[in-house]
């Protein structure tokens, strides 16, 4: 018995030693794996790499290879030529980075850059690849995305009185008629034949909601893409985009009719939820804008914004960055404007926070930045304030953003929401209706008409901007401009367009006279004003525009008697 016990104990002891040994080696192997994995993750650096050029092969003469027929039509109508921004990033550059072990994350043709992760340092990258122009280091910010923040998605029970209208907008009556939109709707201008790209965090439910039945039946969603998942199904993750879309185009007779119920749409999801660096989402946003451009968008409506409330690190923006030239998204919005697209953006919901200024891309000088008011036309407590860092009036205009009526997935019928997220699409819808009625007007003319029609245009401030636009007034302004253009005997051409440092213009055959030459910015302000004595015949002239920032402008020529005016839109790159 004792012998058996000793023998059993020996077997048990051997088994314990074997288990312990194997456990030790397994644990050690796991430790090495974790150590190596952690070291690899630690050694991975994230950069944005900007390239010097796009190579030598250009396709300027074959735009149909890069743009849709709708995009080409939009550019032709506005006299916008293809340039380097339209060319794809040089594939050879990307392949060389990839072959060197760099992981390519997101690439932008407009910025001629790509974001990467790599073990290489900036110095090593610069020495190794001669085609690199600039490298910007990016640190991850472990915060959850807040879209201004969470768009202030607060349901309210406020029931405001209806304003008399010949059209039954249902519960959307006040928000629509506040902008005087019935002036256009009664004549059939409801956004038809215009395309609005809505860039948002997700469109959960929009593919099945009854409010969008007509949108689906009439096939007015002409494109949809999820830039996060990299597929054509943006109807996931977040319902916010569906709510925004309903403000523009919901069609529930007797309950709610949107402000541009017959527009066409491109839907893009660009927001990652969870831990990320915000530059990644900015890149997705620009990729969506590039897609919207090539797909033929006339208007981009976005309720996303970037400022300093995301956390620390290199991804954190400061008020000084709200200067219209610095942030990635604002650069992208400026390029979109140069491509003939009107960009409408939410001012932000930080008005009652420590950061109370507008967010990017609303700081762009060619972006229609929209703040929020309540049903009494009073500034909403959350709506962000201007000015831009360089002192420009922002927001540009206001629309109802408090207790806005929307159709929201998961709720029964129409509900109320707060946020500049919902005032911006109202202005985007107004813009679509104006563009439908005035297809020959330039984007600058449409934007100026909206701003100049606003109720505080004569006395703007940094709370209301220029105030609340009026569709009837904007329509009249555009009608007058078009009549002047049609009756003008002045004839001139300008080039290059886009311009840089210098703008040249050629005045056609004319009698000897004196002309007033003006350059007007997006706010309708005269930034250059000079007098020219013109001899009989054709004459060529040059204007120094090196002091002007990038964006959209109008060159206006007026006879000395003031009876004849001619103007053309151009872009400064």
3D architecture notes:
The chain is of the alpha/beta class and about 575 residues long. The chain has 4 domains: about 1-40; about 45-140, Alpha-Beta Plaits (2-Layer Sandwich), CATH 3.30.70; about 150-485, Peptidase S8/S53 domain (Rossmann fold); about 490-570, Immunoglobulin-like. It is built from 13 helices and 22 strands. A 7-stranded parallel sheet has the order 6-9-5-10-11-12-13, sandwiched between helices. Helix 9 (about 280-295) runs parallel beside helix 10 and helix 12 packs across helix 13 (about 470-485). The model is unreliable at about 1-10, about 15-40, about 140-165 and about 310-315 (pLDDT under 50).
Number of helices: 13
* CATH top level label of the largest domain: Alpha Beta
Write down the Rg: 28 Å
Q: Main β-sheet, in a few words?
A: 7 strands, parallel
What is the total tally of β strands? 22
Oligomeric category = single chain
Structural class: alpha/beta
Kindly report the spatial arrangement of strands forming the biggest sheet: 6-9-5-10-11-12-13
Enumerate the spans where pLDDT stays under 50 for 5 or more consecutive residues.
1-12, 14-42, 141-165, 310-314
Which percent band covers the strand fraction?
Answer: 15-25%
Percent of residues in helices: 25-40%
CATH architectural arrangement of the largest domain:
3-Layer(aba) Sandwich
Number of domains: 4
Mean pLDDT: 83
CATH fold-level topology of the largest domain: Rossmann fold
Categorize the overall geometry. Answer: globular
- State the end-to-end distance: 97 Å
- Relevant CATH superfamily of the largest domain: Peptidase S8/S53 domain
């Amino acid at each position: 018995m004792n012998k058996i016990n000793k023998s059993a104990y020996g077997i048990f002891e051997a088994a314990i030693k074997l288990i312990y040994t194997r456990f030790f080696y397994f644990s050690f192997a796991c430790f090495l794996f974790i150590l190596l994995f952690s070291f690899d993750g630690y050694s991975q650096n994230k950069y944005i790499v900007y390239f010097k050029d796009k190579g030598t092969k250009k396709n300027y003469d074959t735009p149909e290879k890069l743009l849709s027929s709708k995009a080409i039509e939009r550019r032709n109508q506005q006299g916008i030529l293809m340039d380097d921004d339209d060319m794809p990033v040089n594939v050879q550059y990307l392949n060389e980075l990839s072959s060197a072990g760099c992981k390519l994350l997101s690439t932008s043709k407009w910025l001629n850059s790509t974001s990467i992760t790599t073990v290489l340092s900036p110095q090593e990258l610069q020495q190794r690849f001669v085609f690199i122009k600039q490298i910007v280091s990016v640190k991850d910010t472990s915060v959850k995305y807040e879209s201004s923040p969470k768009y202030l998605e607060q349901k309210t029970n406020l029931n405001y009185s209806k304003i008399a209208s010949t059209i039954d907008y249902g519960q959307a009556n006040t928000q629509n008629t506040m902008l005087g939109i019935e002036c256009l709707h009664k004549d059939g201008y409801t956004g038809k034949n215009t395309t609005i790209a809505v860039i948002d965090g997700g469109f959960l439910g929009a593919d099945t909601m009854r409010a969008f039945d007509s949108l689906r039946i009439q096939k007015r969603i002409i494109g949809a893409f999820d830039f996060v998942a990299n597929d054509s199904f943006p109807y996931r993750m977040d319902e916010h985009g569906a709510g925004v879309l309903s403000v523009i185009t919901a069609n529930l007779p007797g309950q709610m009719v949107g402000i541009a119920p017959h527009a066409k749409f491109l839907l893009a999801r660009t927001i990652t939820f969870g831990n990320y660096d915000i530059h990644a989402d900015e890149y997705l946003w620009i990729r969506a804008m590039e897609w919207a451009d090539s797909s033929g968008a006339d208007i981009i409506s976005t309720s996303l914004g970037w400022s300093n409330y995301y956390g620390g690190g290199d991804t954190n923006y400061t008020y000084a960055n709200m200067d219209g030239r610095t942030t990635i998204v604002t650069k992208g919005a400026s390029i979109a404007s140069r491509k003939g697209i009107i960009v409408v953006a939410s001012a932000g919901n930080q008005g009652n926070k420590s950061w109370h200024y507008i967010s990017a891309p609303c700081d762009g000088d060619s972006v229609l930045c929209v703040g929020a008011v309540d049903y009494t036309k009073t500034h909403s407590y959350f709506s962000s304030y201007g000015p831009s860092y360089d002192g420009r009036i922002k927001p540009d205009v206001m629309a109802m953003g408090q207790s806005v009526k929307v159709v929201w997935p998961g709720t029964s019928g129409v509900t109320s929401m707060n946020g500049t997220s919902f005032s911006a699409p109202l202005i985007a819808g107004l813009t679509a209706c104006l563009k439908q009625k005035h297809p020959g007007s330039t984007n600058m003319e449409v934007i100026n008409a909206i701003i100049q029609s606003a109720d505080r245009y004569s006395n703007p401030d940094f709370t209301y901007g220029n105030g609340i636009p009026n569709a009837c007034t904007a329509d009249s302004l555009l009608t007058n401009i078009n009549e002047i253009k049609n009756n003008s005997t002045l004839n001139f051409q300008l080039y290059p367009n886009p311009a840089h440092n210098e703008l040249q213009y050629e005045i056609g055959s004319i009698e000897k006279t004196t002309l007033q030459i003006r350059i007007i910015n997006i706010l309708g302000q005269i930034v250059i004003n000079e007098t020219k004595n013109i001899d009989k015949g054709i004459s060529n002239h040059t204007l120094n525009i090196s002091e002007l920032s990038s964006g959209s402008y109008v060159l206006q020529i007026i006879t000395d008697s003031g009876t004849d005016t001619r103007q053309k839109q151009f872009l400064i790159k």
